[in-house]
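User: I'm putting together notes for a lab meeting next week and I want to include a structural view of one of the chains we've been expressing. I don't have a solved structure, so I'd like a prediction I can at least talk through. The sequence is below, exactly as it appears in our construct file.
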Amino acid sequence: MEALFPKQDSTKKPAIVVKRIISLIEQGELKPGDKLPNEMEIVRQSEISRTSVREALSALELMRIIVRVPGEGTYVTEEALFGTFGPKRILENFLEDTESVNGSFEALEARMMFESSVAAMAARRAEPEQIEKMEEMLIDSEKALAEHDVKLFLDIDAAFHLSIAEATNNDVIASINKSLLEKADVHMWHRYKEDLGLLETTVEGHKKILSAIKERDPKKASYFSEQHLSRYVKGGN
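Assistant: Thanks for the context. Below is the predicted structure for the 237-residue chain, given as C-alpha cells.
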C-alpha cells in the first residue's frame, strides 16, 4: 500500500501534515469516518518529527476536521472542511498561519483545560485592586476595538488573561499561564478571529468572566472562561 504521508524535507512545519491530510480528504482518499494512521506511523512515513505531527493533529482537531477518540484512534469527521470551522477562505487563511506556528495549537488546548480552573480560583482570591485593574483593561480594549487597533487589542487580550492568573495570588500559576500565553501567541490568531467576527465578542466574554469573579462565583467564572476559549474551535460564542 502506498504511504499516505510521503517523506518530506522539512521536519519543523506542522502545516505540511495539515495540508496533506486536507488534500487527501479533498481527493477522496480519506472520507468521513476513516481512521488515520497513528502518530508514529505518520512520523515513519513522512520523516517529520513527532512533535510537529502532534501539533498538526491538534490544529486539525481544533478545526473540527478530525476527532481523536482515546483508546481507539483518530478519525475524519463528518464536518471535515466545511463544518463548524467555516468557509474555505477562512480555512485557507488558517493554513497559511500554520506555516510559522510552533506549539500554538497544543498551547491553546492546554489553555482551555487550565484557564477555567484559574478563573475559578481567581473568583475566590482576587483582591479589589486586581479587579479594578481588569476593569480598566476592559475599557482600554473597547477603545482599541473602536479604533480597530488589532495589535493593541490583542496585547490587552493577553494581558487580561494573565491578570486573571495573577488574581489567584499564586506565582506558580501566574508563571504557567504566562508561558502558555506566549506559546499560544494571541497574535497568530488575529486573522482567524477577524474572519469569524470574534473580535467583537471578545470583550463580552471578558466581561462575563470578570463579572463572575466580582460575584465571587467560581463555577460561573470557570464556565465563562471555558466558553470564551471554546470560541476558537466553534467559531462563535
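A couple of points you could mention at the meeting. The chain has a mean pLDDT of 82. The chain has two domains: 14-87, 104-234.

User: Perfect, that's what I needed.
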